[in-house]
Write a structure and sequence with these properties.
The structure holds 2 protein chains of 2 kinds. Helix content of chain A is 56%, strand content 2%. Chain A is an all-alpha fold. A two-stranded antiparallel sheet of chain A has the order 1-2. The relative contact order of chain A is 0.09. Chain B contains 19 helices and 8 strands. Chain B has a two-stranded antiparallel ribbon. A two-stranded antiparallel sheet of chain B has the order 2-3. Chain B has a two-stranded antiparallel ribbon with strand order 5-6. Classes of the chains: A mainly alpha, B mainly alpha.
Chain lengths: 263, 528
């Protein structure tokens, strides 16, 4: 205290005090004036949530329950987060067309705004994984293709195939192709683990690594068929099919022609 | 004599005086080959082998058969900077930097598939026409040897690049070696020079793939062809064709031109397919690491049926005296293929034992005229096909939205139930076709022309067959069953009674045919 009071008659003391006072007033004012804005935002969000709730009650509650608590045929959605809703509804998997094996990717039933409303409603029930922002998805700028490929082969290829073409699981279930999927949906699938897929948390695969995986998938998608017709990139089965039909067919055709000409 | 003829004559004379080749050439260049498209199937295999030698030699100029770790610095960006084996890196180098390298790799791989397809189709032709009968049993066994070695050679070939798929295949091969009771683990250590994957395996299989097996192939193919040369080619039955002659064209110039031209057609078709269709895109598979695997990992088709057998086998293991016996791999991976190839190799001897036929045969059978043999062939093909389908069960499940478990159960039941059904159906079809032939010979071809007779009756005009056609439909042999005695002349049961009973029964089943038309039948018709 003594040290401070020694400067009270310093010539810089008065301007310093003035600056501090101004700062204090400014901060107080900005906090006070922000309050009405924030409540407006909350109001808008609650309107979106309300819209989402209405959509939910109409389109989802028959299976997932009136309060998203789940039922005999569908799981509870409390705590699944906005990312899950955006993935399932945004790729058209939900609402499900039939309940036999697993939800299929199809044309989405809801508009992007409606999907956002549903996601907001489900996210309001309990905290869960949020929809990743654009800073996580800029694969054109960030990430490494080679690292992404290595991660893909380590973590994804055993179900989704070496080129991301998808593969069969047990009892008619399957890992779908990852070709032609929106980056945001790939990211959401990794953090929410839809259907048979495990969750790849940020501790298992960091957000940067997730971005590299997306970068590799997009590079595989854009890669031209370097060796000619790709035959589906599913391995030797289609190659065998080609050689047993078109291949030997052509040669037997020529053999018949050769033997015929002699007559 | 023109100047040109004089010069050619002088050159020929010069060579002949020093080699004495003229007499040999004269005899052999006039050798006659019968003409039929199915006799060209074996040639497809031969020509594919030549293509494999040529393209394979090209690939060895750049391929580095080493499992040494290198960092990839080539032009394929999605793998840039990754650690991989020199084998994989050099295959990428061949694919992306060597001029024409990818085309050559694809020609080599497609030619390998053609080689195996042609061997199987050629084998089917030889089997279903009975061309393996005396005196060609040894050549049949050589052919089965070529088929077996071809499967091994193909497997080693696609294992060399050390990509993710090929490493998976080697891992399964290691598991099959390990499944051999008691010594399996030691054999696996011996083959891999230690624990999997080690650094020894790819250099070793490289030498087997490019030196040892091709040398054996060359030797076996040479003997195979020399035997065809020496024993003469078989021919289909027809007027003027007997067990003692060969009807066809002389080697020079007609047959030589055709065979030579066909080589270029096979080369052309292989190159065409290699140019337009990708095969084994190793850059997409990525380098092999034991910790990785891809969904839908498959072997090439000629190994696919073995993979299918392993996939359908139930998980049975026994633990005996401190050793685990993995029946689930031992039975489908070693015992069943062992039995199948042994049965295939011994088939000529089994058939001649059942029929008691020890004579030479140079005229081929029409498949319908040997119903039992044709039915056994259909049975074996059905078995293999069910196994092959199960080998691709994951791809089929994925593409057709089916359940992989249901396909597996279909295969498990089908592999036992379907072959006997195929046997019965094929045998009945053969005998029906024989009956149809009989009808045709006796009553002629239905012309569809209806004629009304003066008294009002309608009849259809039947056109009599040409003598050539009648000969074709009636010239085959029909030998009755063996009737071996169970009791000897003194009324005592023979020591080989059980064997004779079995053999007689099999012979009776084998001799079940629709009786062919005889001259007696034809005479009766004429007197009608």
């Amino acid at each position: 205290m003594k040290r401070l009071s020694r400067y009270r008659r310093h010539r810089a003391a008065a301007p310093m005090l003035l600056i501090m006072a101004l700062l204090a007033i400014g901060t107080t004012f900005s906090v006070a004036s922000a309050t009405p804005n924030k409540s407006a935002l909350a109001l808008a969000r609650s309107a979106v949530i309300e819209e989402g709730k209405q959509l939910f009650l109409k389109g989802c509650s028959s299976c997932h329950g009136l309060n998203a608590e789940g039922g005999a045929v569908a799981p509870s959605l409390i705590g699944v987060g906005a990312a899950s809703v955006d993935f399932q509804v945004g790729t058209g998997r939900m609402p499900m067309a039939d309940m036999s094996t697993q939800a299929m990717r199809k044309k989405p039933v809801y508009t992007p705004e409606q999907v956002a409303a549903l996601a907001a409603y489900v996210a309001s029930l309990a905290p869960g994984p949020a929809i990743p922002g654009d800073e996580y998805l800029n694969y054109e700028r960030d990430g490494s293709v080679a690292e992404g490929g290595e991660l893909f082969r380590n973590n994804c290829a055993m179900c989704h195939n070496f080129a991301g073409q998808g593969g069969a699981l047990t009892q008619g279930k399957y890992a779908p192709t990852v070709m032609g999927v929106e980056p945001v949906h790939i990211y959401e699938a990794m953090i929410t683990g839809p259907q048979s897929m495990p969750v790849f948390s940020d501790k298992t695969i960091t957000p940067e690594e997730k971005l590299s995986i997306i970068k590799w998938i997009k590079s595989a998608e854009a890669e031209p068929a370097l060796g000619g017709a790709s035959l589906g990139r599913v391995g030797p089965v289609t190659e065998g099919l080609l050689i047993w039909t078109l291949g030997i067919g052509m040669l037997i055709g020529v053999a018949v022609w050769l033997a015929m000409k002699a007559r | 004599m023109t100047a040109r003829e004089r010069i050619a004559g002088n050159v020929a004379n010069y060579v002949d005086e020093r080699t004495g080749a003229a007499a040999w050439m004269k005899k052999n260049l006039n050798k006659v080959f019968p003409d039929h498209w199915s006799f060209l199937l074996g040639e497809i295999a031969l020509y594919s082998f030549i293509i494999l030698l040529l393209s394979g030699t090209f690939l060895t100029f750049w391929f580095d058969p080493s499992q040494r770790e290198v960092v990839y610095e080539g032009s394929y960006q999605p793998l840039a900077g990754l650690e991989m084996s020199a084998a994989y890196a050099s295959t990428l180098h061949i694919s992306f930097e060597v001029r024409g390298g990818l085309l050559m790799r694809q020609i080599h791989h497609w030619a390998a598939l053609f080689f195996m397809v042609a061997i199987v189709v050629h084998l089917m032709r030889v089997y279903f026409t009975g061309a393996f009968r005396k005196p060609r049993e040894f050549n049949w066994i050589i052919g089965v040897g070529l088929l077996t070695l071809g499967i091994v050679e193909g497997f080693l070939g696609y294992s060399l690049p050390d990509d993710l798929l090929s490493g998976t295949g080697i891992r399964i091969a290691e598991a099959i070696i390990q499944a051999i009771p008691v010594v399996g683990t030691y054999l696996a250590f011996f083959a891999f020079g230690g624990a999997f994957p080690g650094e020894a395996f790819i250099p070793r299989i490289f030498i087997v793939h490019v030196l040892i097996l091709p040398a054996i192939f060359l030797a076996l193919i040479t003997v195979h062809l020399m035997l065809v040369w020496y024993q003469k080619h078989t021919q289909y039955p027809g007027p003027g064709r007997t067990e003692k002659n060969v009807v066809g064209y002389p080697l020079l110039p007609v047959y030589m031109a055709k065979a030579g031209g066909f080589f270029f057609v096979v080369f052309g078709v292989t190159t065409f397919i290699a140019a337009v269709a990708s095969i084994n895109p190793i850059w997409l598979y990525g380098p092999y690491t034991p910790g990785q695997i891809s969904a839908g990992s498959q072997p090439d088709w000629y190994m696919g049926w073995l993979d299918g057998l392993v996939r359908m086998s139930p998980p049975i293991e026994t633990y005996l005296f401190g050793y685990t016996i993995s029946w689930n791999i031992l039975i489908p991976g070693l015992i069943i293929p062992g039995l199948m190839f042994t049965g295939l190799a011994l088939y000529p001897f089994i058939e001649s034992w059942i029929t008691g036929d020890k004579r030479e045969h140079h005229l081929l059978d029409r498949p319908r005229n040997a119903p039992n043999r044709t039915a056994i062939g259909a049975m074996a093909l059905t078995f293999t096909l069910v196994a092959l389908i199960n080998g691709g069960n994951d791809i089929i499940a994925q593409q057709f939205h089916l359940s992989i478990n249901q396909i597996m159960w279909f295969s498990r039941i089908g592999i036992i139930v379907l072959p006997p059904i195929a046997f019965v159906i094929t045998k009945r079809i053969c005998i029906s076709l024989q009956r149809a032939d009989r009808e045709l010979v006796l009553h002629g071809k239905e012309t569809g022309r209806l004629v009304r007779l003066p008294h009002g009756e309608f009849v259809e005009i039947h056109e009599e067959l040409t003598p050539e056609k009648k000969w074709l439909l009636t010239s085959h042999e029909q030998n009755g069953p063996l009737e071996l005695p169970e009791i000897d002349k003194a009324g005592v049961r023979r020591t080989d009674a059980i064997r004779n009973k079995l053999r007689s029964r099999m012979s009776a089943a084998n001799a079940e045919v629709a009786p062919k038309v005889t001259s007696k039948d034809l005479n009766e018709i004429e007197h009608h």
